[in-house]
Amino acid sequence: MRKWQAGLGLALAVLAPWAHGAGFDCAKAGTAVEKAICAAPKVSAADGQLGEAFKAALKGHPELADALKLDQRHWLASRDAALSTYSSIKEAESSVLSLYKSRIDFLKGLDAASWPKPYAALRPVLAKLPTSNAKVPADFAKTGVSITLSEDVQLPDAKAFPWQPDATLREALKDMDSYAGYRKLEGSPISSLWSMGGTAHCWTETPFRIEGKQAIAVEAPAAWSGGDCMTDHGMARIAGDIVAYVVGDGSADEVTFETSVWDGKTFAADHMLVFRFDHALSQVASACAPGKSPCDEFATVALTAATRYDRSPQPGTLDTAFASVDKAAYAAQLKAARGANGPLDKDSESPELPLLDDAGGRMTFYSHDAQPFPVVFRGETLLGLIDHGHVGWRENNDWMVSAWRLKAGKLEPVASAYIAVNRAKLLLAAPVPAPPPETH
Fold first, then answer.
1. Between 20 and 30 A from 416 (CA), which of 9, 163, 187, 290?
2. Does residue 256 sit in the same domain as residue 306?
3. With 80 as the cut, is the pLDDT of residue 27 above it?
4. Cβ-count burial 124-138 (b if 16+ within 10 Å, e if not)
5. 4 falls within a domain
6. To 10 degrees, the CA torsion angle through 33, 35, 36, 42?
7. What pLDDT does residue 45 have?
């Protein structure tokens, strides 16, 4: 999918969300996106509902006002980034409405007077979580909460399974991927045979009761029933409750923690807790031509660009970030970049971040949706490129920034930098309705 070639504009500012429709006068809509939003009644209505939920959250929780405003800015940025992957609002509508629903559910969840198990035990110690790169649920052990995580014991083959499996487990053992095992939680009467495979790291779980030497399959909790992908599965004992859990940890800003408590006979209904975090950008590596030597000068420029783009990741954000741009030079560079074998040629392979031989083992390939912008470095107007790091279809949260010049009709790299996006302090947490299980 190609990126949406327009911004969403200042009408989406944190303190001026849409009230009951578009937050701007549709008769004066100027950009293609503004016009598309005005032509999408369901999206406009959803944003109006979000505006009301946000106002209610500010009014009901004045002590959280600063955190709410900062978190709303982060959410708007991630929403804009998601929108930019679609060619039209019509194509994006279903995904956009889902994003709005999740956000509204979260804001309403802040009003919950009590939290379900096992979250009630976590609520009093949220402020004690590490202020950087917090891991859920493991880091709750640092807060004083009684928590023990299961150990994943790998199985080289089905014969290594330490119990006598029933018919369901025998079939599951036959279907194991090469990376498989069972969960060991000391003193627990419940475990699970797990298997993970595919490029999306999709899980298959078959939980079972342990009765002496027998392993008897039980119905899986909803969170485990769909073979979800790119998450972290586990079991834990939290404040005396044995839970099966799923952690969604793909964003620096958000972690989802879905759990189901074992009640002695079955897994109870799923619940979900959403954590919202601040984040911070930091320089990881840089290099300048011709010698690929570290280049702090460009790292500073790249951090400036990434910080601005991180706040509004959409086309046009960086078009005026650097003064005294030679427009003619930039236009020629942009044309070359989109030409045959250029870094923006969608018919050729995506380029790797140039000049940097090592960025600490991180993803360093651009996508075809890398965003070009004019950048001035050492007095020269260059073609800048910014994008998240990619490997195949995988994408991370970090920013890659590079600069290119046109020489003898060909683009050559001038400088590159890798900017990490690091999870910072916890801003907010709230219980939300658990989603339906996903299937793949």
1. 9
2. no
3. no
4. eeeeebeeeebbbbe
5. no
6. 120
7. 84
In a domain, residue 432? The reply is no
Domain end (from 87, 109, 131): 109
When pLDDT is cut at 50, 70 and 90, the band that residue 437 belongs to is low
| 364 part of a folded domain | yes
What is residue 184's three-state secondary structure? strand
Stretch 282-303: mean pLDDT: 96
Question: Is residue 277 within 8 Å of residue 427, measured between CB atoms?
Answer: yes
Tokens of 49: 């509902």
Q: Name the pTM for this structure.
A: 0.91
Please write the tens of the pLDDT for every residue from 145-171.
999 999 999 999 999 999 999 999 999
CA 278 to chain centroid: 13
Token pair 């989802």 in the structure block, residue:
256
> Does residue 429 fall inside a structural domain?
no
Pair (286, 416) in one structural domain: yes
Domain end, chosen from 214, 240, 269, is at 269
In whole angstroms, give the CA distance from residue 312 to residue 76. Answer: 8
Among 355, 338, 335, 336, CA closest to 346: 338
The candidate with the shortest Cα–Cα distance to 181, out of 199, 148, 204, 213, is: 204
Q: Is 346 in the same domain as 293?
A: yes
d(Cα 73, Cα 79) in Å, to the nearest integer?
A: 10
249 or 393, greater pLDDT: 249
Instruction: Say if residues 155 and 181 touch (Cβ distance below 8 Å).
Output: yes
**CB-based contacts of 376, cutoff 8 Å, min separation 6:** 322, 323, 324, 325, 382
**Consecutive H or E run containing 35:** helix 32-38
Count of residues for the chain? 440
Minimum mean pLDDT among 58-62, 367-371, 434-438: which range? 434-438
User: Whose CA is closest to 34, among 292, 306, 295, 314?
Assistant: 314
Residue 255 shares a structural domain with residue 336: no
- Domain of residue 78 covers 10-109
Overall average pLDDT of the 381-410 stretch: 95
Sheet strand arrangement including 179-184: 151-154, 179-184, 190-197, 202-211, 214-217, 164-165
Tokens 């095992």, residue? 181
Q: What are the backbone dihedrals phi and psi of residue 270, each rounded to the nearest 5 degrees, phi first?
A: -70, 150
**pLDDT tens readout for residues 416-427:** 999 999 999 999
Q: How many domains does the chain have?
A: 3
| Residue 42: strand, helix, or coil | helix
Q: Is 384 exposed, middle or buried (0-12, 13-18, 19+ CB in 10 A)?
A: buried
Q: What is the pLDDT of residues 110-125, one digit of tens each?
A: 999 999 999 999 999 9
Same-domain check for residues 146 and 247 = yes
